[in-house]
Amino acid sequence: MSDQLFHNIAKPLLEKTTALTIQLNELLEKEKAVLKSIDTSSLKSIASEKDLIMTTLDNHHQDWLALVEQQVKALSTDRVHRFLKYYDAKNNTKLFKIWKSLQDQARKCQRLNTINGTIIILRNQAANQILSILRGQSSENSTYDTHGNQKATNNGGHSLAKA
Fold first, then answer.
1. Rg (CA), the chain
2. Which of 32, 105, 117, 140 is the most buried (most CB within 10 A)?
3. Is residue 106 domain-resident?
4. CATH number at residue 51
5. Using an 8 Å Cβ cutoff, are 60 and 13 in contact?
6. Could you tell me the residue range of the domain that residue 120 belongs to?
7. CA–CA separation, 50 and 32 (whole Å)
8. 145 inside domain
9. pLDDT tens, position by position, for the chain (163 residues)?
10. Is residue 160 part of a domain?
């Protein structure tokens, strides 16, 4: 494949992928705000939007890998990095800069997704603790199920459930 053809395909593909990744970051920030709030009714629509973006990103990623694989044998992040730096220097393009921006956005998405997952886990734990209290279960005498989740045992004490 000629350098010009590669550039004509690679640049718009990287730009579209970067724009989608930025959009995903914004959606993850929105999700984080919703998770921190009391009203989580919009989470379902956010999840649907995330699924759509992730499907499109996956398709772009597959296209990118196929395109770069034609230029770089034995793909690895380091080889793509070196290839794009060389390609930019040889052809006076900015593909490396776009690719690096995409990598940065992807790291932001990963970090936000981890934060959002932690918020969900903590909210779930808090809800389970409240349910245990309402059921009259003691968290002091707790055991763990096969998934490592804490299960409180009923100590026969007073509970709101008995009221």
1. 24
2. 105
3. yes
4. 1.20.58.300
5. yes
6. 3-138
7. 13
8. no
9. 777 888 888 889 999 999 999 999 999 999 999 988 888 888 889 999 999 999 999 999 888 888 887 777 655 677 888 888 888 888 888 899 999 999 999 999 999 999 999 988 988 888 888 888 888 876 555 566 666 666 655 555 555 555 5
10. no
